[in-house]
Amino acid sequence: MDVEHVVGLPHPRLRPFVTRYSGYRMRTEPGIHRGLPSRSLTLVVTLDGTVDLADGRFATLCGGLHDEAVIITHDGFQHGVQCDLTPLGMRAFFGVPAGELSGVTVGLDSLDAPAAELRERLRHAATWTDRFALLDLVLGRLVRPVRQQVEVAWAWQRLAAGVAVADIAAEVGWSRQHLSARFAAEYGLTPKVVARVMRFERANRMLRGERRPTFTEVAAACGYTDQAHFNRDWRALVGATPSEWIAAELPFVQGGEGGAGAELAP
Predict the structure, then answer these.
(1) Do the beta carbons of residue 64 and residue 152 sit within 8 Å?
(2) Core vs surface per residue 54-65: b (16+ CB within 10 A) or e
(3) Euclidean distance between CA atoms 70 and 237, whole angstroms
(4) 30: phi then psi, degrees, rounded to nearest 5
């Protein structure tokens, strides 16, 4: 296994819209990779080859929020850059709400973005630092004024803080049904589903740590009722049990974040 994985932060003025850049170059056994649910939308520019999904092959892509794993097939070589976008980033860069891409992946060129130019320039950049600086430049050119309903944005922030959906509805003065409808129109998922995805993210981060906790510890720390609840939720979101995912993908993921990896913080 030959894995290179470098993480960098975008320019400070872009951080409300994109939380991190990840550069990767990986040679592994051919197979599948699961793109896991998260609170981020995914923008990918390949430097070699394509990202092969059930609904197409993409040299550049943007994928919306989703509540199940996206299956990526590969021939053993993957090379590109991934940007983790916030939902607000979709409005800032492309002028559309995140809800328009819920559960789907589209080519970056379909969003009226300079996809071919971006890919060509990234391919000719000499280092990951240069590529991340180029992303700052190109994404910075795309930024436009954004407007978002205050109550919906507040609901997202409160979900991230672990507040219950019923309590958030009371805070904004809406019924749960009205909150769910407005929230889903903006993000494509209901508050209940986003809360579930955020809880899954916390569990996933714990399992990637240097000291891997037991499943019982993860379940208790992340608010699952018990380990059985944790296992059911994980299978629904990932398409595999935690044990199956660890056996198939965690060595691959950790290899990308271990000795061959680096972190850049411009």
Answers:
(1) no
(2) eeeebbbbbbbb
(3) 10
(4) -60, 150
Q: Could you give the 3-state DSSP secondary structure of residue 45?
A: strand
Read off the pLDDT of residues 127-186 as tens digits, 9 standing for 90 and up.
999 999 999 999 999 999 998 889 999 999 999 999 999 999 999 999 999 999 999 999
Q: For 225-250, write each residue's pLDDT tens digit.
A: 999 999 999 999 999 999 999 888 77
Average pLDDT over residues 188-213: 93
The Cβ-side half-sphere exposure at 7, using a 13 Å CA radius, reads: 9
Using the Cα atoms of residue 44, residue 50, residue 55 and residue 60 in order, give the sign of their dihedral.
Answer: positive
- Is residue 54 helix, strand or coil? coil
The CA distances from residue 121 to 4, 34, 125, 157, 168, in Å, are 20, 28, 6, 35, 44
In whole angstroms, give the CA distance from residue 88 to residue 17.
6
| C-alpha–C-alpha distance, residues 169 and 256, integer Å | 40
pTM of the model: 0.90
Based on the number of CB atoms within 10 Å of its own CB, is 154 exposed (0-12), middle (13-18) or buried (19 or more)? middle
As beta bridge partners, residue 71 has 34
167 burial type by CB count under 10 A (0-12 exposed, 13-18 middle, 19+ buried) = exposed
Q: How far, in Å, CA of 95 to CA of 91, rounded?
A: 4
Please, what are the domains in the chain? 2-146 (2.60.120), 150-249 (1.10.10.60)
In angstroms, the CA 77 to CA 6 distance is 16
Three-state DSSP at 30 gives: coil
**Cβ 7 vs Cβ 261: under 8 Å:** yes
